[in-house]
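Below is our example:
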Amino acid sequence: MITNFLKKTFTLALVLSSAYIVCQEAVAPLQELLHSLTPEAAFDQLVHSTAKFTLVKFFMNECGPCKRMKPIFSKVAQELTGKVQCIEVDIDKFGSVANKAHVQSVPTFVYYAHGKEQGRIVGIKTGTELKNKARHYFHM
């Protein structure tokens, strides 16, 4: 099982790799780990090797609907702090992560519980819709 320290380190690795972790604590960088860690490995550790609930937003910077979802997702992430780990992944920078998650369009929101995908929604949604799906998929 991954310790809290390692979870925070993987979080920091993704942040420094230009994927964004919303509402997560950062720790001092471990240069050797950051140079050896791939985005796919960091994603796997955050999503698949944790008992937490995770909501991942896959987006592109130049995508109009993605831009519209940015403040909505940020607000939802703040409201779910302590209950759900919320992650944003830029598919232009991390296409291999998106491919591994079978993302075909953006924005895509994928809900993971205990490392397994519970469901996904695609497109512009309200904050209420995102939270209701979290409640449904995570039995909150």
